[in-house]
Specification:
- By secondary structure, this protein is α+β, with helices and mostly antiparallel strands.
- It folds into 3 domains: about 150 residues, SH3 type barrels (Roll); about 160 residues, no CATH class; about 70 residues, no CATH class.
- The protein is about 70% helix and about 10% strand.
- Strands 5-4-3-2-6 form a 5-stranded antiparallel beta sheet, with no helix packed on it. The chain has a 3-stranded antiparallel beta sheet with strand order 1-8-7.
- β3 and β4 form a beta hairpin.
- α1 packs antiparallel against α4 and α3 packs antiparallel against α4.
- It starts with a strand and ends in a 7-residue tail after the last helix.
Length: about 525
């Protein structure tokens, strides 16, 4: 899982711009040569109180006598404001767009308007540009978690990793007050992490924070239980000294508080929240809470922090492998993570633990792996079908008439055969007609020859003999003296009928495909 890093560039830039202008502070030089640098918080005629930094997180206060002070150098107002602006970056986690806008307006913008000629102008402009860049990311759906920027896409791909981390940072921020209500609020966040995100890298961090917070809460509850009777008695004593109107107002305010507490308690119970609201005025509520805290401290000791940290790292890698579709390696690492021991509980205290071994992140990843594999298989099938369809389409585009050409070629082959048969029939018919014609011509010639011969023998025949011979020639040309249809005429008629049949079959498509 990869996140966007922004702090390296930001640190280098601000160092370059502010390196020549170190964070200024009030300076006090003593007569013995000792010098103090910090923030002067009080000045009187005799004393000066200055707050100095003993370390990055520890501040120490010094009370100095004016008689021992040689000189005092104070920051200019613009220097003091610039020091406050430097604390704006790096910005806090999970800030919203409205928070960024307010910070830019009341911080860099106000400074640049008040001190346009300040030596810190360039550094302030750079701080403003950094905040505006982060505001743009937030408006585009990014969220800042410590030093990382999480995109909406990453949050959708890795919901358990991101949401567990958000819950831990909420737990961390809520607990900073260290009051009993602040610690209870932090434990409500821990309860959600323990219910839903065991196995994430955020979980061992949450366990460590809870282990540090609960002893503090236990001590506060002990003092509250010890003092509750006295405080209630003091309330009653103070109320008794009030007049009727003031007493009625105090009692009405206490009644509203009690009603709000009961309504909130019922809502917590209905929601199944274990770390419900505490009634600091009820000894029973305080003592009950003290028992729950002791039980939770015992439960937290059953967690193996080293095992949890190792498992969290492996499971985060598995999550990334699943997203990258590296299923084989993901399955191997998943089984490796499942074998890691995350509890150090004995049989006795394990029974008091709210949860057994196992981890919800592990179960979520198994489900995610199964679902992603199934989706990838379906996608692969879809790709295969699409590839086949695309190949077929491409083939049809490259040779769109191939099938039609094959059919036309087959049709042409049949038609050629029909044509040849028709031509053969026509040839046969022509030959038959030729023979018949030649036969007709020969017979009249023979008749004429006979007539010539007969005319030589008898030139004195009259017209009646000529008519008789003409009738005889007609009978001879029509097939002879039988009076029926001759064989030659039958052959001619059959040939014509055969030709008509072939042409009709060709037109109707009989014996082959119609063109």
């Amino acid at each position: 899982m990869k996140f966007t890093k922004s702090y390296l560039l930001l640190t280098l830039t601000l160092t370059a711009l502010t390196g020549f202008f170190p964070a200024l502070a009030d300076q006090i030089k003593m007569k013995d040569g000792t010098a103090y640098e910090g923030k002067i918080t009080l000045e009187t005629d005799d004393l000066v109180k200055i707050e100095i930094s003993a370390s990055s997180s520890i501040k120490e206060t010094k009370m100095l006598s004016r008689s021992d002070i040689e000189s005092i150098t104070k920051d200019k107002p613009e220097d003091l404001e610039f020091n406050k602006l430097q604390e704006l970056v790096p910005s806090r986690s999970m800030m919203g767009a409205d928070q960024y806008k307010s910070m830019i307006e009341t911080g860099p913008n106000t400074f640049l308007q008040k001190y346009p000629a300040s030596q810190h102008v360039e550094a302030v402009k750079k701080i403003k540009a950094t905040l505006e860049e982060e505001l743009d990311k937030v408006e585009r759906g990014f969220i800042k978690l410590e030093e990382d920027w999480i995109s909406p896409q990453e949050r959708a791909k890795f919901p358990e990793l991101v949401n567990s981390r958000i819950r831990f940072l909420n737990m961390q921020q809520v607990s900073r007050g260290l009051s009993h209500n602040a610690i209870i609020g932090a434990m409500r966040e821990f309860e959600d992490i323990e219910d839903n995100y065991i196995g994430t890298p955020a979980f061992p961090r949450a366990v460590e924070l809870a282990q540090n917070l609960l002893p503090t809460l236990a001590g506060q509850l002990q003092r509250m239980a010890r003092d509750v009777d006295y405080r209630n008695a003091e309330y009653e004593r103070t109320k008794s000294q009030m007049d009727d109107i003031a007493r009625q107002q105090v009692e009405a305010a206490r009644a509203r508080e009690e009603a709000q507490y009961k309504a909130g308690l019922e809502a917590d119970k209905k929601a199944g929240i274990r770390w419900v609201r505490l009634n600091a005025r009820s000894k029973d509520s305080i003592e009950s809470y003290g028992k729950m805290v002791a039980e939770e401290i015992k439960n937290l000791k059953t967690y193996n922090l080293e095992g949890l940290k190792k498992q969290g790292e492996i499971l985060a890698d598995v999550d990334d492998l699943i997203v990258k579709n590296n299923f084989r390696l993901a399955e191997s690492k998943l089984e490796e993570a499942a074998k890691i021991s995350t509890r150090t509980a004995t049989e006795g205290n394990a029974a008091s633990s709210k949860k057994g071994g196992g981890g919800t992140y592990l179960a979520a990843l198994r489900a995610k792996l199964s679902k992603t594999k199934a989706e990838e298989e379906e996608l692969a099938k879809a790709r295969e079908e699409a590839a086949k369809s695309q190949a077929l389409t491409q083939n049809m585009k490259s040779n769109p008439k191939s099938k039609e050409s094959d059919e036309q070629e087959e049709t042409l082959t049949v038609d050629e055969e029909k044509q040849k048969a028709a031509e053969a029939a026509l040839a046969a018919l022509a030959a038959s007609n030729s023979k018949a014609s030649s036969g007709k011509e020969e017979k009249p010639a023979k008749s004429k020859s006979s007539k010539s011969k007969s005319s030589k023998k008898s030139s004195k025949r009259d017209d009646d003999d000529d008519d008789e011979r003409e009738e005889r020639r007609e009978r001879t040309s029509s097939g002879g003296g039988g009076g029926g249809i001759s064989i030659t005429r039958i052959i001619q008629i059959g040939t014509v009928l055969l030709l008509i049949a072939v042409v009709a079959f060709k037109y109707l498509g009989v014996g082959g495909k119609k063109e």
